Amino acid sequence: MTEVVPSPDTAVIISARDEGERIAATVTAARELPGVDLVVVVDDGSADQTGRLARAAGATVVRHSRNRGKAAAMETGAEAVRLLEEGRSDPEGRPSHRHLLFLDGDLAETALAAAPLITPVRTGEADMTIAIFANRVKLGGHGIVVKLAKEGIKRATGWDATQPLNGQRCLTRSAFEAARPLAHGFGVETGLTIDLLRRGFRVVEVEVEMAHRATGTDWRSQLHRAKQLRDVSRALASREPTVTKALDSLKPK
After folding, report:
1. DSSP codes, 191-226
2. Contact, 103 vs 42, CB < 8 A?
3. Which of 171, 206, 217, 239 is disulfide-compatible with 128, CB 3.0–4.6 A?
């Protein structure tokens, strides 16, 4: 039976910093996903050849002159897609927006396994999908940040996330816009999940055969985890009911 290839309806956005070793393979695999006709790489202040290699592999590249963090890179990528979509319309002449598939830059060839993340969004079964990696890499840390995010999401929404910090996600454009402004930095995934669930959007987890580079145990890895802990804590704190009410009271009437 011949597989039906969907019409182009999805853009891939890859936030990357110093991913020169894997970015070309990631872009190549992403471009082969059914229904994907646009791959945007946001080079978030890389010191290596990430941007050049991504462009050579066929991606549209947008560069931050300095590192601005994951959430800012996601926003930049989504805006780039919107600008490239100007004039795009459906058969009835209405503005047509691509679904947004966010992938990490270090997935390499396994990015091709992201197709199941798109399907529920494409068919209208979900507004956002979150990847569950079937083969989890052994991490150098102790899961403190994951536990914090998992418990915070459940406390805020009642939903029990399996891999709350997984950045491989597909969203409708309307869901993405509803979640803006995104939580800062590495708190973006936690904030996205809470904000969309609270607004009544449908969030579905999907198991995929993907893998990224494991986080090590050196000082750079420990600094990365410290930043994650800080950003996730901020995202959760700003979404606590008492904090939310206090912030609302400070807004101009």
Report:
1. HHHHHHHHTT--EEEEEE----PPP-SSHHHHHHHH
2. no
3. 171
